[in-house]
Write a structure and sequence with these properties.
Helix 11 runs antiparallel to helix 12. The protein is 84% helix and 0% strand. The chain contains 25 helices and no strands. The protein folds into two domains: 305 residues, no CATH class; 210 residues, Methane Monooxygenase Hydroxylase, Chain G, domain 1.
Length: 543
């Protein structure tokens, strides 16, 4: 390879690397500065598509990555904490929010990149305050973004002078669908539409490519960025796949529509450039913003229709149909003021739903113990996340009910439910503990002895049956079934004691070594605690 060509290629690749690192570093700084507020915003303020779009714009502006916002939304959908309808608004907003980066690039602050990085780096090295560190991280990343872009431009412009490259750019001007393909593939490879739009701004700013060829590439960038949501949904729930599908449909529809209107939109951007005196880089940023804002305004009213479309296209699996349903989780705040008694009845149904999810956590942990499949482990983490969220929301709701006048019987029920959700949350935690113990076992390439695995099966099946009876007792208010659970808990305690004695015997006979010696006792202790928490719930109900 020619030395000059090698230098140019290294500048292009190195500049791209600095750009991608800087935008991630800046986004992480902003995200850490905001703390858990970002996730809370997404979870709380997305009950309508319009609110979801506004949150999507805000969060993407902070993260400096529409892919990051989309992936975060999909993770909440996977965890059952958000519906597909809610996530569609966020995705539309994320597409608008990502245009902020293009406008930042259009400011052409490259000559100030090193001083900005120096300020950020010095504060980062010497600041003792965490918040100040996060701010300095953001400043450093902001400067690095322009440095990477400047280095990239140096590598791009000489390559652009090659006759083959120039001819390819001319071909793109006459073949918009080829230009869309280029933008799509490039963004899929780089995994950042901001980076590919930055490259596009450099090419157009250097006079290498015409605006008419640049616009379809811009549309392709929007299609390419959907690869992140597709990857984030792989192995996830049907709802997560529907969210990813809605992202793809939204961006593909926009690209097709704007390609059909390419000439009118080209004249519109050109007229705006003349009217406002926009630089070439700002023209690309303006075109990008116009594309995404227009598509969001056009399709936002049809968010529910889009959700129905992806629901029809992507069907739930038989396994998911058998899972507890989070879609009916509703706690009506107004009902507390209108009738605390009815609010108590409503919340009891949600406690039963929480018990079903806690049971599912234990089932998922057992599935992972037998399969070692990361898919089963992912399902467990999703279910445990749902239980944690329900615990917080139900606890807050019950405490609010407790501030109103209740009868003696209702007061006891309120206290019982409040204590019961703590038990249910702990049951889910013990399920996670079991999975972690088995994860250690899998990592160490060791297995329980046949006798140990048989005892584990007996214990876990007994605990799951206790949970089945506990849910039935909650549903039927049955003291008789509660008595059965308490009897089962005494039997489980004896089984655990017997398993421990057998374990000691195997240890004496040198049948055990290494990790297995510790893991088995930890596993059966967690199963015993699951039984204890189920019995706690039934003890209170029986009273």
């Amino acid at each position: 390879m020619d030395v000059n060509m090698q230098k140019l290629l290294f500048e292009l690749v190195g500049g791209l690397g600095i750009f991608l690192f800087s935008i991630k570093f800046m986004g992480d700084g902003l995200k850490n500065f905001a703390g858990d507020k970002i996730r809370d915003w997404i979870e709380k303020f997305t009950n309508t598509p319009v609110k979801g779009a506004l949150v999507g714009i805000l969060v993407t502006g902070l993260l400096q990555s529409s892919s990051g916002t989309t992936a975060l939304a999909i993770s909440l959908v996977r965890a059952g904490l958000m519906t597909t309808q809610q996530s569609i608004g966020i995705i539309m907003g994320a597409n608008v929010g990502t245009t902020i980066t293009a406008f930042l690039i259009g400011l052409k602050l490259s000559k100030y990149a090193l001083p900005i990085m120096a300020v950020g780096g010095l504060i980062y090295m010497f600041a003792k305050n965490k918040k100040l560190n996060y701010i300095s991280q953001t400043i450093f990343g902001f400067g690095g973004l322009f440095l990477g872009l400047e280095i990239m431009s140096k590598g791009l412009l000489p390559i652009a002078e090659l006759p083959q490259f120039s001819q390819f750019m001319v071909d793109l001007s006459f073949s918009p669908f080829l230009a869309i393909l280029v933008g799509t593939v490039l963004t899929m490879v780089v995994q950042s539409s901001s980076a590919t739009i930055g490259i596009l701004q450099s090419l157009y700013g250097g006079g290498v490519i015409s605006l008419q060829a640049a616009l379809p590439i811009l549309y392709g960038d929007n299609i390419g960025t959907t690869i992140t949501s597709v990857l984030a949904s792989i192995g996830g729930s049907t709802a997560a796949k529907r969210t990813a599908a809605s992202h793809v449909i939204f961006n593909v529809l926009g690209s097709v529509l704007f390609t059909l209107l390419l000439i009118p939109y080209y004249h519109f951007v050109s007229a705006a450039a003349q009217m406002f005196g926009l630089t070439p880089e700002m023209q690309i940023a303006f075109a990008h913003a116009g594309f995404n804002i227009t598509m969001t305004l056009l399709l936002l009213p049809f968010a529910d229709l889009l959700a129905k479309l992806v629901t029809k296209l992507i069907k739930p699996t038989a396994e998911e149909l058998a899972m507890p349903d989070m879609s009916n989780f509703v706690l009506d705040q107004e009902l507390i003021e209108q009738s605390p008694s009815f609010a108590l009845v409503q919340v009891k149904h949600q406690v039963i739903a929480m018990a079903q999810f806690a049971r599912q956590s234990v089932i998922n942990a057992n599935n992972y113990a037998k399969s070692g499949s990361l898919k089963d482990l992912e399902r467990l983490k999703q279910t445990e996340g749902i239980v944690d969220t329900m615990d917080k929301k139900i606890a807050h709701y019950l405490i609010e009910i407790g501030t109103h006048t209740l009868s003696e019987e209702e007061g006891k029920l309120q206290a019982t439910l409040l204590k019961s959700i703590r038990d249910l949350e702990r049951i889910s935690d013990h399920a996670i503990n079991i999975s972690e113990h088995f994860e250690l076992k899998f990592d160490s390439k060791e297995h329980l002895t046949p006798q140990g695995f048989e005892e584990y099966n007996q214990l876990i099946n007994s605990a799951i049956e206790m949970l089945n009876l506990t849910i039935q007792a909650l549903e039927e208010d049955s003291a008789f079934i509660c008595g059965q659970v308490i009897e089962r808990e005494n039997e489980l305690d004896k089984m655990v004691l017997n398993a421990r004695e057998n374990y000691i015997e195997r240890l004496k006979n040198q049948e055990l070594n290494g990790m297995k010696s510790f893991v088995f006792t930890d596993i059966i202790s967690d199963i015993e605690r699951i039984g204890d928490h189920a019995a706690n719930i039934c003890d209170r109900l029986a009273e």
